[in-house]
Design goal:
Two copies of one chain form a homodimer. With about 325 residues, chain A is of the alpha/beta class. The first copy, chain A, folds into two domains: about 5-55 and about 155-325, Rossmann fold (3-Layer(aba) Sandwich); about 55-145, Rossmann fold. Chain A has helices at about 5-15, 30-35, 55-60, 65-70, 80-95, 105-115, 130-140, 150-170, 185-200, 215-220, 250-255, 265-280, 290-295, 315-325, and strands at about 25, 40-45, 75, 95-100, 120-125, 145, 175-180, 205-210, 260, 305-310. In chain A, the strands form two sheets. Chain A has a six-stranded mixed beta sheet with strand order 1-2-10-7-8-9, with helices on both faces. Chain A has a four-stranded parallel beta sheet with strand order 5-4-3-6, with helices on both faces. The interface of A and B includes residues 22, 25, 47 and 278 of A.
Chain lengths: ~325, ~325
C-alpha cells in the first residue's frame, strides 16, 4: 500500500521544525487521572506558536519551497487555525501569505491572522467555495496553494505532535496504550498515527470528532469517504470539515483503531473541566479528545493514554458564556 | 546573619518532593516576548497539584512530622491556596487536616478544600483572627499548626519553584537576568530568592504585589516590616497578607533587588493577555508578576527574565466577568 507519508517524513519534519516550533509540554493532572481512573498525558498544543498545532505543518510545508515559489508567495484557506499557522510560518520565512477565511470565523482568529502580516480574504462558509477562491488567487498571482490537510508536508509536520508524545512519555516512564486525536480533515490524525504506529505499533490511535461532523468515524466504518450534511453545524469551528481528505483517509483507515464522537454539550463540559481542573484554555475543537475521555468513549480499562489538546484559540465572549453555562 | 532557611534547605525540600510534587513546565511565548521586547520564561504553577505552588511547602512540612504529630493531625489557615495545598498533602500522607478559611473565599477554593478531604472552619476575614481560631483548634486537638509562610519547611518547599526555574532555564540555554515572584506573606518569594541567589547570585529577584497590599515593597524601602491599612482590598485574594512575615522578611530584605507593585486594572489586563496569548488560566494573585512585566515595572533592557505564575484557581464567574470587561 502506498501512503502519502511514512514515519521517515515525520522524522524529517521534526528536523525541519527544530528551533522553529515549540516543543509543547506533555502534562499530567491528578484531577483528570482521578476522574477517569487512569493516567492521562495531555499534549498541550495551545502552547504552540499561534495557539494550535497548525504551525507545525505550515512551517514544514513553507520551508520546503524553492526560491521562485517563495517569491510568488502562498495562499491558504482555513477556518482560522491553519490560517494563523500559515501566516506565522510565512512571516518567519519572509514569504507573502494570503488567507481565505470564512466571514463568520471567530473574531480573534481573523484579527490574529491579520496581525501576523497575512492578507485576509473572507468568504461565505455555506454558499461559496473557499477552494475555488484560493485557486483563483493562486492562478492570478502564481501563489503556491497550502491546503489545510491534504498535503504530505502538512501531514508530516502535524505528525511531530505524535513523535513528541512518544518521546516525552518515554522520558516520563509512561507506557501508553492509546492516543486520542482531535480530527477535522484528518491531517493531524494521519500524521500522529503515522508517528505513533511507526514507533510503537501496539499503541491504539483513535480520532475524535463532534457528532455533527463525524465523517471520519462513519468513513472508517463504511470503508469509503463519507460526507456530512451541508446543514451540519458545530461549536467546534476548527473541525468543520465536510469529509475526510483524499490523502489523509487511506492512512487513517489503515492505522486507526476507531473513530469516537462527542456531543456539543460534552465539548462545553470538557472546556469547563479544563478551566477548573487543568487551568488550560482550550477551544471547542481542541477539547473533543478530552471530552471523549471524560465521557468514557474509550474501551474500559486503567491503561495509560495520551490526548492531544490541538488548539486554544477560544473566543473570549464564547468562552465566558461557556464558563457561565449560558450556552 | 542567620536566616530561617539556606539553599541546603531548598535542595533538601526538592529531594523530599521528588515523585510527590509536579515539576511544572517553564514555558515561553512569542507573543509575550514580542510584547515586552525580551525573552520571558513563564513558570506555570497552575499545573501544580491543587493549581498553585502551595502544595510544595505543605508537603515538605507535613512529610517531616513524626508519628505522634501525624496522628494528632494538622490545622492551617488560608485564603484558599494554602488550604488546598495542605489538604492535598495531608490526604497524600494520610494525615487529618482542619483548615480555617475566610467565609468570603472564592467558592471554588472552599469546595476544592472540602473535596480534598479536609474539614473547613470558616471565619470573618475582617473581624475575626484566623490565627486565634487555628490556635484554639490546635490546643483542643493537639493538632500541629501549619502556617502559610512563616515556617522554614514551608519556605524551603516553595523555594523549589526557584530551583526548577534555574535548572529548566539552564536546560533551555537561557541566561536569566531577573526573576519576578508574586508576593503575599513572602514565603514563596523568600524560598525562590534563597534558591536563585544561592545558585546564581548575579540574578536579580523582585517581588510583585498589588498596589493596595504593598507591605513588602514599603518594608524593603523602610527597612522594617510595614503594615497595610485594615481597609485595604484587592482582587488578588491570594496576596492579601497585611504585613511581611517575621521569618520571610529578613531573607527578602537581604536578597531582593526591589519590590514592584501593580494596579487592579493591570492585573485584569494581564489575565486577559494570558487567556488570549498564553492560553493559560491565571488567578488574580498569580498574575501580578506578569502584570509587572507587561507594564514595564522592570528596569528597561532586553535581558532574559523569568516570571512565576503562582496560581490558577480563578473563580469561573469572576474570570468570565474579567474576560468580558465587566469588572
Amino acid at each position: 500500500m502506498s501512503f502519502a507519508i511514512q514515519i521517515a517524513d515525520v522524522l524529517s519534519a521534526a528536523e525541519q521544525l527544530k528551533g522553529a516550533a515549540v516543543r509543547t509540554p506533555l502534562l499530567e493532572f491528578d484531577t483528570l487521572n482521578e476522574r477517569v481512573g487512569r493516567r492521562v498525558m495531555v499534549k498541550f498544543e495551545g502552547a504552540q506558536h499561534t495557539g494550535s498545532f497548525k504551525f507545525r505543518g505550515a512551517y514544514n510545508r513553507l520551508s520546503r519551497l524553492d526560491d521562485t515559489q517563495r517569491q510568488a508567495g502562498v495562499v491558504a484557506w482555513s477556518s482560522g487555525n491553519h490560517a494563523q499557522g500559515v501566516a506565522a510560518a510565512a512571516k518567519r520565512l519572509g514569504i507573502r501569505a494570503t488567507i481565505v477565511m470564512p466571514a463568520d470565523a471567530p473574531a480573534n482568529k481573523l484579527a490574529n491572522t491579520r496581525r501576523l502580516g497575512a492578507e485576509v480574504v473572507t468568504y461565505d462558509r455555506f454558499n461559496e467555495s473557499r477552494e475555488a477562491i484560493a485557486a483563483g488567487i493562486a492562478e492570478e498571482r502564481g501563489a503556491v496553494r497550502v491546503p489545510p490537510f491534504d498535503d504530505p508536508y502538512i501531514m508530516a509536520g502535524q505528525g511531530t505532535v505524535g513523535l513528541e508524545i512518544i518521546e516525552q512519555s518515554a522520558d516520563l516512564g509512561v507506557d501508553l496504550a492509546a492516543v486520542l486525536v482531535c480530527c477535522g480533515g484528518g491531517g493531524l490524525t494521519a500524521g500522529v498515527a503515522t508517528a505513533v504506529k511507526g514507533l510503537r505499533p501496539h499503541i491504539d490511535v483513535y480520532c475524535v470528532e463532534p457528532q455533527t461532523f463525524d465523517d471520519t468515524a462513519r468513513s472508517l466504518v463504511a470503508g469509503t469517504r463519507q460526507k456530512v450534511s451541508p446543514e451540519a453545524r458545530s461549536i467546534c469551528d476548527a473541525l468543520m470539515s465536510p469529509s475526510p481528505g483524499e490523502l489523509t483517509f487511506p492512512i487513517n483507515q489503515a492505522l486507526l483503531s476507531g473513530g469516537l464522537t462527542v456531543s456539543e454539550d460534552e465539548v462545553k463540559d470538557a472546556m469547563r473541566f479544563a478551566f477548573q481542573s487543568m487551568k488550560l484554555v482550550i477551544e471547542p475543537g481542541g477539547a473533543v479528545a478530552l471530552a471523549a475521555l471524560l465521557n468514557d468513549r474509550l474501551p474500559v480499562g486503567d491503561s495509560h493514554v495520551a490526548i492531544v489538546v490541538s488548539g486554544a484559540n477560544a473566543d473570549a465572549e464564547l468562552y465566558a458564556a461557556i464558563l457561565r453555562g449560558e450556552v
